[in-house]
Write a structure and sequence with these properties.
Two copies of one chain form a homodimer.
Chain A (H helix, E strand, L loop, with lengths): L1 E3 L5 H10 L5 H22 L2 E7 L2 E10 L6 E9 L8 H15 L4 E7 L5 H9 L3 E11 L2 E9 L2
Parallel strand pairs in A: 4-5
Antiparallel strand pairs in A: 1-2, 2-3, 3-4, 5-7, 6-7
Helix pairs in contact in A: 1-2
Chain lengths: 157, 157
């Protein structure tokens, strides 16, 4: 079941982010920051939308997205992550579909996802490609020398 | 003279942004938001660095920049604007040089500037090119349909 995240999902969200294996401590801290703003101000007030995939009472994955300032209908997908044990089970695809549907309903027409060009993120890039995203732009050495920013986009129908 | 902006520059900064002719009301409001954070928390606390070009007591231009989260040494140049009457006087170039020098001193190695691909911003894009920036990436229809994001970058020596 995919629903808007509630306070009780907080611990699992942070654990899933920490255990994803590709995010370092600073990146995980960023999830916590966005999550706290979402809890305090809600999705409208914070601009951050969190959704979770739950099986019974267990939270197995989450996604976080929000509209980019100064655009009309362009959304950033900030995070999408699934519990390591549940990979390849279709939860990531289901979360992506739900996120896109939510963005579309809010007037979203373009989704932007930023990731790294290093080998460590190859699985991540492959996942985006598999759900219809295109690597539209690259900024060389963006994160650090040798670590490019790759910007994936998808036009919502 | 180019110096770190002080409270007394606030009015001029917002007026220059409003009169620049390329920014709409929402974009000008963004300057105000960043400026207020800078005044309250300072450059270190807010992450926004404002510098101004002053002639005597008159503020004729400003620039605003800050390090991008999750990167090592990548800086966003958020704004650079000069009073319409003072265009083509070299103030923009001088502000750009001072901003780059400040970023370099803080460990900056890559500067990123985002702008629009529409004809209205042609002068802006020409200015960036004239001071050594390259249009490294484009995201089609980013701001709105027909209005691309063009990302300029410059490697600091």
């Amino acid at each position: 079941m995919i629903v808007a995240a509630e306070a009780k999902d907080g611990e699992a969200i942070q654990e899933i982010a920490a255990r994803a294996g590709v995010f370092d401590a600073v990146e995980v801290a960023t999830v916590t920051e966005l999550w706290e703003e979402y809890l305090q101000k809600g999705a409208q007030g914070s601009g951050y939308h969190f959704i979770v995939y739950r099986e019974g009472e267990t939270t197995l994955g989450f996604a976080c997205f929000g509209e980019r300032a100064l655009t009309e209908g362009t959304y950033d997908l900030y995070w999408i992550a699934v519990s390591p044990e549940e990979r390849r089970s279709g939860i990531g695809q289901a979360l992506m579909r739900a996120a896109e549907e939510a963005m579309r309903q809010m007037g979203g027409r373009l989704v932007v996802v930023e990731t790294s060009g290093t080998p460590r993120y190859e699985g991540t890039r492959r996942f985006y490609a598999s759900v219809g995203y295109q690597a539209e732009a690259t900024l060389r050495d963006f994160y650090r020398p040798g670590d490019d920013l790759v910007i994936f986009t998808k036009r919502l129908k």
